[in-house]
## 1
Amino acid sequence: MTTIDHDLAAYCTTHRDAYLDELKAWIAIPSVSADPAHRGDVRACCERLVERMRSIGLDAKLLETDGNPLAFGEWLGAPGAPTVLIYGHYDVQPADPTELWETPPFEGHVRNGKIFGRGAVDDKGQVLMHLAAIEAHMRTRGNLPINVKVVIEGEEEIGSPNFESALARYRDLIHADVAVISDTAVFSEDVPSLTTSVRGLVHWEVTVHGPADDAHSGYYGGILANPIEALARIIAGLKDAQGRVTVPGFYDGVPELDASERKEIAALPYDDAREAAQLGVPELVGEAGHSALERNWFRPTLECNGIYGGYQGPGAKTIIPSFARAKISARLVGSQEPAHVREIVMQAILAAAPRGVRVEVDSAGDVPAVVLSRDHPAAQAAGRAMQAGFGAVPVFIGTGGSIGPVASFDRVLKIPQVMIGVGLPDDHIHAPNEKFDLSQFFGGIVTMTALYDELANA
Amino acid sequence: MTTIDHDLAAYCTTHRDAYLDELKAWIAIPSVSADPAHRGDVRACCERLVERMRSIGLDAKLLETDGNPLAFGEWLGAPGAPTVLIYGHYDVQPADPTELWETPPFEGHVRNGKIFGRGAVDDKGQVLMHLAAIEAHMRTRGNLPINVKVVIEGEEEIGSPNFESALARYRDLIHADVAVISDTAVFSEDVPSLTTSVRGLVHWEVTVHGPADDAHSGYYGGILANPIEALARIIAGLKDAQGRVTVPGFYDGVPELDASERKEIAALPYDDAREAAQLGVPELVGEAGHSALERNWFRPTLECNGIYGGYQGPGAKTIIPSFARAKISARLVGSQEPAHVREIVMQAILAAAPRGVRVEVDSAGDVPAVVLSRDHPAAQAAGRAMQAGFGAVPVFIGTGGSIGPVASFDRVLKIPQVMIGVGLPDDHIHAPNEKFDLSQFFGGIVTMTALYDELANA
C-alpha cells in the first residue's frame, strides 16, 4: 500500500480550513471566458494566481497569449530530477440559468460535505490541489522533489483557441519531461481511476434567416417559410431514428472497439437505470449497438447545446420570427479530423436548407481526441499517488469530455502526459449547482502531494 | 361618388394635429396584455378610454370581466335610427425585441407621413378613428345620426379569452342591430377593401423535459436524449416536405375554393416576387397547390412562433439542456373546430415524443374562422363610407388574421357584422416598428364619420 510521508500528510490535514477559504476566494472571481463582459474578471483571476504562486515560492509571471493570459510559475531547484509540467485552467463556464442555483454561483458554500460554486471542481478546485501540494512540500521540507512548471490557462471552457499558439511561442519556457493534467473525474467515489482517453470537440452556430422583421402570423401565415421550422428540420435531419449521425463521412476515423475493450468497459459497475434515475430521465438513450459507457467514451456525438428564435416570454405572440439560431457541437473520437468534421457538417446543414430562408453557419474549435499510454512510468507513478490519496489502486477509464490542451501538448511539446483528476461524475460541472466533494478535494491534495514524490522516483 | 358632409369634413381636417397628439398619448400607455407585468398599464388604459368617451358626450363606464376590463360608452339619442355596436381593442402586442425599434415602441414618432409605435394601427389608432368620428358629429351637429354602443376590449392580443363570457353577461347592455369592427387592413394603399373573412386561432406550448439539470455534453453526450433535438423532431414532423400539416384530421372542415373564388383572388394585384422582396425573403413558400393569397386567407396554418432551450448567450456552452420549449399556433378556416384541432395536434405531438424525454403540451384559444355577408345593407353602407374616405369603391377581401370577437358576436349576439379597417399590409403589426400611415389614419376618420350617416340611411 502506497502511503504519504507523515509530515506532508499532517500538513495537508491541518490546513483544510485554509484550503476551503482559498477555494471560496477563487470561486468568487467570475472568470467566465465565454462572455466578453467578464474579460476583466478573467484577467484579474490570472493576476491573483500569479501572486499566489509567488507566495508559495514559485518564480511566477503572467504570460500574454492572443487571448486570455496564462498564469505561469516554475521552481527548478531539483537538478537531476524530472521536470513536471502541471496544467489546469482558471476560467469557468457561464453560470446561467442562475435562478436554478441553490446558492449564488460565484460564492463558495459548503453543504453536506461538498463545496458548491461555479468552478469548484472545474477547474479551480483541482488547480488548487496542486498549489496546496506544492506549498505542503515547500513549507514542510523547504523544497520539492521534482522541478515544476505550472501553466494555468484562461480559455479552456471556450475550447482553448489560443493555447496551442502560446505553447509554441513559449515552448522553451514551458518544455518539460512529462505533463500532469488535473481536469477530469474518477469513475466513482468508490472506484478511483486514471483517465487515458479524451474526446475531441468542435462547434457550429447555425442561423436561419427569414423575413427582415418578425412578421404577423395571421397576415403572413401560409406565405412565409418559418425560420424555426426550417431550423427544426435541419436539426432533425442530422440524425436518423437510431441516433446515428447522417452526415456522410462523419464516422471516418472512428475506431471500432474490440472484444477485450468492450469486456473491460462492461466490467465496470455501471447501472443504466440508476444513472437514468439520477439524471432525472426515463431512460438512457443513444446510438444503437453500443453500451452507455461505450457511447460516452468511445463514440462521437453531435449535440444541440442551445436554440432560440421568436417569442420566448409569457403567454403567446403570434409571429413568424425573423430568425432562429442553434448552437451545435460534436465530440470526436479516434482519428476524426476536427477541420474535416466541421466542414462536412457545415455542408450538410447548408444542403438541408429549405426553400424560402437563408442559412448561415459559423464553425469553431480544433480539438482532436487523444489516447494516452497506460504503461508509461509516469502513469504508474500517478496510480501509486492516487492509491495514497484514496486507498485503492485506480482503474483506467475514458472520459466523454474534451481537454484541448492534451492535444496541444501532444502536437507541440510531444511529451508523455498523465491525466489525474478527482472530480465525481455527479459534480454538475457546466450546470447549475456545480460542486466538489470535500473528501475528493482533500484526497486530491494528498494525491498530488504524493504524486511529486512518486514522479521523482519514477 | 359618395362624399362627406362639408362641415364634418372641415372638422376632421382642422383637427388632424389633435388626432396625432391623442394617438401619441395612447401609444405611451404600454397596455401589453400578454405580460402580467403590464396589468396596471392595461387597466389604466381602459380608465383613460372611459374618461375620453365621456368627454365627447358618451355615457361611459368600465365593465369588469373575468380578465381585463372593457371600456364601454353609449349614446342612444337617435330614436328610430339603428343602434350600431363599435368594436376595437386597447391592448397591444409585446414590443420585444425592443432593440430593433428605430424609436421607442411606447412613444409615437412621426416620420415620412407615418406614425410609429406599438398599437399605432393595431388597434389604438383605429379605435381613435371612431372616437374622432363621434366627436366630429357631436361638435358639428350636436348629435349622432345613429345610436352607438362602443365596446373596446383589453385582451384581443391574447385571444380574447374573456370577451365572450363578458358579452353574455352584458348582453342586454351591449345588444345592437349591427356590429362594426375596425381592426383590419385594406388590400393596399391603392385598393380600398372590406374584409369579409377572418381565420380562427388556437395555441400550444410544448415543453420537452430532459435531465433534471443541464448536463455536461462531454460527460453525458451519447447517453442522454437531447430535449432540443427531440423538440426539433416533433416540430419537423408536423408538416411534410410540401408544407402540408401531417396531423390526421387537421384539414377536417377546410372548404375547397371553387373556380370563381380562385379567379376573383387571382384578379387582385399581387406580385409574389415583389412581396418576397419587401419581406426580405428569397421567395414566398407555403402549402403546395394554392396561390399565396389563397394560402393566407383560405388555408389553415400551423406555425411555430417561438422556441428556446439551452445556452443562448455569446460563444459556446457545451451542455445537454434540461428542457426545450416551443410556442405553436394554428390559423383556422371554414368550419375547423378549435377544440378539435387543439386536441388532435396535442395528441400528435405527444405521440411523436422520442424515447428518453418527457413531453408536456398546454393548449389555449377557441377562435373559429368567420365569413361575413357581402350583401347586407350595412356592408353596402360601409362600402359607400370607404369611398367617401378614400375615393374608390372598395373590393371584398379576406384576411389571414384572427379576430376572436367576430366569432363571439356571431355566437352570442347573432347580429350582422361589418369589418371596416384601414391599416396597410406593411404596417409591421406584432413586429418592431409598427406604424400607421397618416393618410390612412386621416382617411379612416373621414370614413367612420361618413359611415354613421350611411348606416342611418341603410
## 2
Amino acid sequence: MKPKINIGLIGLGRLGRNYADYIAYRIPRANLSAISDIAETAMASCAEALNVSKCYKRYEDLIADKEVDAIVIVTSTSTHKLMIIEAAKQGKAIFCEKPLTLSLQEGRAIEQALAQTGAFFQMGFMRRFDRGYAAAKRKIGAGEIGAPVLFKASSRDPYRPSLEYADPKISGGLFTDMGIHDFDLARWFMGEVRSVYSTGGVLAYPEMKAIGDIDNGVTNIVFENGTLGVVDLSRNGVYGYDIRTEILGTAGAIKIGYLRETPILVMAKAGVAHDTVPYFMERFGEAYVAQLRNFVENLLNDQAPAIACADGIAALEISLAAKLSYEENRPVALNEIKSN
Amino acid sequence: MKPKINIGLIGLGRLGRNYADYIAYRIPRANLSAISDIAETAMASCAEALNVSKCYKRYEDLIADKEVDAIVIVTSTSTHKLMIIEAAKQGKAIFCEKPLTLSLQEGRAIEQALAQTGAFFQMGFMRRFDRGYAAAKRKIGAGEIGAPVLFKASSRDPYRPSLEYADPKISGGLFTDMGIHDFDLARWFMGEVRSVYSTGGVLAYPEMKAIGDIDNGVTNIVFENGTLGVVDLSRNGVYGYDIRTEILGTAGAIKIGYLRETPILVMAKAGVAHDTVPYFMERFGEAYVAQLRNFVENLLNDQAPAIACADGIAALEISLAAKLSYEENRPVALNEIKSN
Amino acid sequence: MKPKINIGLIGLGRLGRNYADYIAYRIPRANLSAISDIAETAMASCAEALNVSKCYKRYEDLIADKEVDAIVIVTSTSTHKLMIIEAAKQGKAIFCEKPLTLSLQEGRAIEQALAQTGAFFQMGFMRRFDRGYAAAKRKIGAGEIGAPVLFKASSRDPYRPSLEYADPKISGGLFTDMGIHDFDLARWFMGEVRSVYSTGGVLAYPEMKAIGDIDNGVTNIVFENGTLGVVDLSRNGVYGYDIRTEILGTAGAIKIGYLRETPILVMAKAGVAHDTVPYFMERFGEAYVAQLRNFVENLLNDQAPAIACADGIAALEISLAAKLSYEENRPVALNEIKSN
Amino acid sequence: MKPKINIGLIGLGRLGRNYADYIAYRIPRANLSAISDIAETAMASCAEALNVSKCYKRYEDLIADKEVDAIVIVTSTSTHKLMIIEAAKQGKAIFCEKPLTLSLQEGRAIEQALAQTGAFFQMGFMRRFDRGYAAAKRKIGAGEIGAPVLFKASSRDPYRPSLEYADPKISGGLFTDMGIHDFDLARWFMGEVRSVYSTGGVLAYPEMKAIGDIDNGVTNIVFENGTLGVVDLSRNGVYGYDIRTEILGTAGAIKIGYLRETPILVMAKAGVAHDTVPYFMERFGEAYVAQLRNFVENLLNDQAPAIACADGIAALEISLAAKLSYEENRPVALNEIKSN
C-alpha cells in the first residue's frame, strides 16, 4: 500500500480553491502535489498559501507529471471530456466534479475511453456523502420507512448565478446545472427513471430570458418501478440556500435538510427567528471533504468508485429529458433520450 | 338584525356529528334547530345529546320547516345537488361541505338554481379558515414574500379510507376527494389554473386496484399567470395526518403546517421525538368552527359568502383535469375541461 | 344522575368573562344559571351575550340561590375566603381559581370550613389540564424517563401587569402570583418540597420598586426525596408568553411547552421566523375548558376533586417560603413556613 | 512575521489526540513539531499517523526544545502548574486547557510566574469560540435583547465519567469539572459574580457516593450588577450531550444550543424523531479548531490572548464557591472565596 496519494488538482475557481484546501489539510492520506489553472494569479496565490511546488499553466503538463497519481477535475464542464480522456490515457486515477458533461455524445466518449484504458474514475455528487443523505440511505435500506413510494426534492439557490455562468451553453441550464444533484439522488434512492414531465418559467429574474434559461422549474418523475417523484428548482431562494429531500414510504417518511446555520434562536417581539444557510459551501463543505476522502480511500484500498461514470451519464439523461419535456410541454420517456 | 340563525343540519356522519356540536356550542349566534339523517339511531342520539327537538328522517321535511333559516349540508356528495336546489327553492341560506359535486353538469345545474332563486350559498373549504392559512394569505397579500412564483402542497392521510368510501364513484377518487382542498388553495393563493399534469399509482394498498383508484398522486400545475405549482397526495402518511403548503415568492417563502399534536418533546436514547397529528378533526377542528361562524356572520350582516359556488366548481374542474391527465398521461388544459 | 349542573359564576373580570363563555358553550353538562360581579355593566353585558337570566350584585345572593348547584369563583384573591366559607355553609360545590388565598391563616380557615361542611371543593391550577402537562405526567408515570431527578420551570409574562394588579398586597408578589403555578407543578411531578432558596431583583421595570415587588426571580428547590428543582420567573418575556417545563430523569427527559402560535413559518433574508404565543388565554384556553369540564364531571360522577384545597395551601406554602428566602437571602425549609 | 508557529503538544489523551489532528491539519499557520505523553504507545501511534518527528517522554524536554515556539497543554489538571511555570521560564507561548488548576493557591502561583516572565498565555474555554456562542455575544453586544437580566445554562453529559476521572481530587468535582464552562460563560455574558447558592445530590449513579461527588447540581447566581443566573449540571443526560444557554434581556432573549446531530427527521407511527449530539467532540469540534486558530493568530499578530489566566482563575473561584455553598447549604459570596 502506497502511503499517500499524490493529487494533481485542475481548476482553482471558487469550488476548486476549496478543494485545494481540503486536499492539503483534510485528507490525511493525500498530498496536493500539483495544481493547474489558466488564471496564473489564482494559481500563484494558491501555491503560496498551501506550499504547492508544482504549478502547471497547461493541464496536459500536470497530467503528464509522473509523480501525480490522481487527477481531480473542478474546471468548467466543457473541458471535462478532453481532460478525462487525457488522464485516462496517462493511467491516472480521476475524480471529476458534476456534471460530467452537457452532452450524451461526450459522455459516451468518456465512458469508452475509461473502458479502454481501465482508468479508475469517480464522479462527484457530494450530497451522497452528506451525513444526512447517507443516514437516510442507510435507514431506508434497513426498512425504516417500508417501501419508498414518493421522492420529493427541493433545491433553491439564494440568488441567481451570473448570466455568464448561467448561460445554458455553459451551465446546461436550470434542469442540468441545479437539477442534476436531485436527479442523481432520485436514482440513488428510488432506482431508474422511466419518464419525466417538467414545467418552468422566468418568474423572478426577467434578464434570464436573454440567455435562454428559466429561473424556476418543476419536474415530475415516474420511476421504472412505478413509484413517483417530484423535484422543484429555484434560483430565487432569496432567504438562504435551501436543499431539502423527503422520501415517503409505506411505513413512514424521512426528511433530509435543515435551514439553520448558527445554533442560536433570537426571541423578540417580531417573532422567534434563526438564520439560514448562506450557500453550498456552508451546507456541503464536510460532504465535499468526505467525498474526496472516499476517493482517496478507494484508491488506496483497491475499491470500486462510490459513484461511477455511468451515474454521471444517467443523471445527465434525466436532466436532458426534463429540459426537453419543458421545451415541448409533454412527458418524455428516458428511453427516448437514451436512444438519441 | 335577527338575533340568532336557526340552522337545520343534514347529515350526521363523522363530520356532520361534529358540525352538530359546533353549531350547538361554538357558534353563539346560531341555534341547532333541526337535524336530518337517514340513520335514525344516529339522529336520536344526537338529538338527545344536544337537546334538538326537531328530527326529520326526510331532508325535504327539514328544508320545508318554516323555522329553519339556513341549511348546512354534510351528506355524501351525490346527494348535494338535489338538496341544494330544494333548499334554494325554499329560500333557505345554504352551506355545503366540499366537494360540491363530482360532475360539472351537476355543478352547473346547482349554479343555475342558485342564480334563479338568489339563494345565499357558501361552499365549505375549511382550510381557508385555519389560522395558518389565513395568516399566510394576509402576509402574502401584504407583500412579505414578494411575488409568488411556486405553490407547493402535500396532503397525506394517516391511513386509507374504507374501500366503500374510497370508491371513485362515491368519492371522486384521489385527485378529487383529497386533492380538491389543495386545488382550492392553489387558486386562492395563486390565481386560476391554465393546465395540469398528473402521475399516480397504487403503491401502498394493492386492494385499491379493485375499486379503480390510486393511493398516491402528484399533480404539476401551471397557473394562468405563468407561475408554477405542485401537489402531492398520499393515502399512506402512516405517521400522521400531514398537511403542508408552501408558497415561494421572489422575496421569501411561507410554510403552513405542523406535525406536532401535543406540546411535549421526549428526549431518550432512541432520539428526540414528538407525536403527530392524528387526523383532520385534530388539525382543522377550529377551522371548521371558524368557517361555520363566518357563514352565520355573513348571513347576519348581509355579507357575500366567503367561498362561492363558483369556487366549488373551479376546484372540481382542476381535480377533473388532474384525473384526466393521469389517465391519459398528458398535460391537460383547464379549458378542455371547461368546454366539456 | 342529575342531567346538568347549574353553575353560579362569581367574578367577571378578564378571566371570569372567559369562564362565562366556557360554561355557557363548552361544558355540555353545565348551565350558566347565575352570575355575580360588583361591576354592574360587565354583568349586564355578559348576561345579554350569554342569555343569563339571574344577575346578583351581591355574591351572597348568588350563593343563596336554591337553583345554583355549584359556585365558580374567579374574583380577586382577597375575597376567596369569605365566598368559599359562605358557599360551603350553603352546601354548594365550589371551584376556586388560584391562588386560594395569600395567607396560610386564611387557607387553614378555609380548610376547616370545608372539613366541617363536607362541601365539595376543587382548586384551579389549569396547567395540570393542559394536554402537554397531562401527557408528560402520564409518560413519567409510565417510566419513560426513569426516575425524575430535576424539575425545571420557566414562566415569562409578555409584559408587566398594572401596578395596581401587581401590588404584592393584592397579587402576593412575583413568587406567589406567577410562581404558584410552577410550584404546584413542582409538587405534582416531583413530590413535596423540603426547602427553597430564591434570588430576585427589579431588573426591567424600575417602577416595580414603588410597589415593593420584583420583576425577575429564581427559586432553587430541594424536594423531600432529595431531587432538585429550579423555577425562573420573569415579567419581561417581552417576546411572548413563554411557559416551559422540563423534567430530567435517569433515563431521559421531557420538555413541555411551545412558543409558536400560528402554524406558519416565514422565510426571508432576515431569517426564518415564527410568531409567539401572546398570552395565557391563547396558551391555556383549552386547559381552562378541560378543567371546568373535569369539575363538572367530578360532581356528576361523585368523584374526588382533581386538585384539593390542600394542594392550594401546599403551593402557597412554597411561594411564601420562596419569598421569605429572597427577602432574607437564605435557604428556607418548608417546615419553617408550615409551623408558622 | 514568522511564517508558522511550531507547536509542542503535551498530553495525548482523548482530547489531546484530537488537538494533535487539529494542529497538524486544521491550523494553516501552525506546525505540530513535537509531542509529549507519558504513555509511549499513544505517542508512537500519534507520531506515525501525523508524521511528527519529535517525541518526548518528559514534558520538560519538549519545553526545552529550541525549535518549539508554543506549548499546548492538554494534560490532567494537577500537572498544569508545573508545566506552565516551566514553559513560561523557557519563554514559550502557552495555551492551557480548562480548568487552569483546582486550587486558587496554584492559580495565583501561575499568575505570578506569567507576570514575572511576561509569557504569552491563553486559557482554553472553547465554548466562547463556538459559532452559536460567538454570535450570541455579538448580538447581545449590539443590543438585540436589550439589557441582559437572566443567564440560564444547562450542561448534561450523556453518561457519567469513569470513577477514576470523576474523583473530585482529580476532576474538582461536578461544579468544577462540568460547571466551569458555564461559569466562564456566565462571566462572559453578564459580568462578575457576587454570590452563588448550590443544591445537588447523588440521584442517578449511587456509586458516585464512594468517590465523594454528586451527579446533579443546580447553582443560583447573583451578579455584581444585580442580574440573575442559574446553572444546572447533570451527569445523566442519557439521551445525548445537551449544552444549552439562554440569556433573557429586557427586549428579548437568545437561546444557544441544539440537540440534532444529523440533518434528518424520521417520521413514523411512533412519532417524529431526530438523533442527538453524542458528545463534546461532535458538538464543539469546530470550536476547538477555532480556538487553536485564534491562539496561533494572536501569536502571529502580537495580539492579546482572547482568554487570559485571570479568566481561568475567576471561573475557578465561582466553581469553588458553588461547591462550598452546596457543602454548607448557604449562599456564598465570591469575596469570601477570593479572600481565602
